[in-house]
Amino acid sequence: MSLEKRRRSKREGPRDVLIRLKAVGICGSDVHHFKNMRCADFVVKEPMVIGHECAGFVEEVGSEVKHLVPGDRVALEPGINCKRCELCKQGRYNLCPEMKFFGFPPPTHGCLANQVVHPGDLCFKLPDNVSLEEGAMCEPLSVGVHACRRASVGPETNVLVMGAGPIGLVTLLAARAFEAPRIVVADVNDHCLSVAKALGAHEIVKVSTNIEEVAEEVAKIKEAMGTRVDVSFDCAGFNKTMATALSATGSGGKVCLVGMGQRELTLPLTSAAAREVDVIGIFRYKNTWPLCLELLRSSKVDVKPLITHRFGFSQKEVEKAFETSAGGGNAIKVMFNL
């Protein structure tokens, strides 16, 4: 079927690209949809395709797409914004209220499929030395890159990362690429901490889930850092992790909330405000794919160690892949090879 015929039953038209997907990663939100039929307040009420971390081959291009040709390998940015609202016009398109994002919110279909039609301007050609799997990893890496941009991480910024799950680890990699001179990672899990250390964390600190231990653990974090904490990234998003980040961050520093472990947080903001600690948030990312691809091309970031498990695209393997991702253990990023 031609792209013209496909588009009449799909979304747009001459600016679209038909992609044959080859690499699709599993995100925590996909696991929530798969296990619980919901993610936060968004409930799955009808059959839908999930997945939003992906890369593949261009099969066909619309008549107005000039930067791609059939056969090109591309990474896909999964969110389609309206381009008309004030936020889009201001360049903050990640906050577009009309955003259509792969697999979110339900019933918007995602990318765990053999083919998708997607706007050409959201398809980015991969450098020759960047694999399709690495291209799919641009999506989670973009979260870390956007967080580092929001928090103005640079060569004079000492960074604390709370949480060494997949997003904490890509935030660590991004902070290293942004030349943070010292990075400390804290987590409750020994294996996750060992991975963080292998990926370049200067020091690791094991913490607990007991909020009564915040003061003691902040002291350990400060000792591990050896200097002031300028920016803290909470990549877990719990009362305990945010309380720790707020207390550990030096006066005049920043705490960036990246993770969304709890729907609502109760935080000791008064003492942090008195020290002029800024609290900022992020939502996904914007304009990150070109930088992510350059970081991968130049080997300033290596995401390959994060890909711990690979599966095919049969019913049995899809179920096994989600069980593996949901089960924790030593699984970091589970990837489908279609």
TrEMBL record:
Residues 2-336 form the Enoyl reductase (ER) domain. One of its GO terms (molecular function) is zinc ion binding. Its cofactor is Zn(2+). SMART domains: PKS_ER. It comes from the Eukaryota. The keyword Zinc applies. Signal peptide: none annotated. Keywords: Metal-binding, NAD, Oxidoreductase, Zinc. InterPro entries: ADH-like_C, ADH-like_N, ADH_Zn_CS, ER, GroES-like_sf, NAD(P)-bd_dom_sf, SDH-like. Belongs to the zinc-containing alcohol dehydrogenase family. This is Enoyl reductase (ER) domain-containing protein.
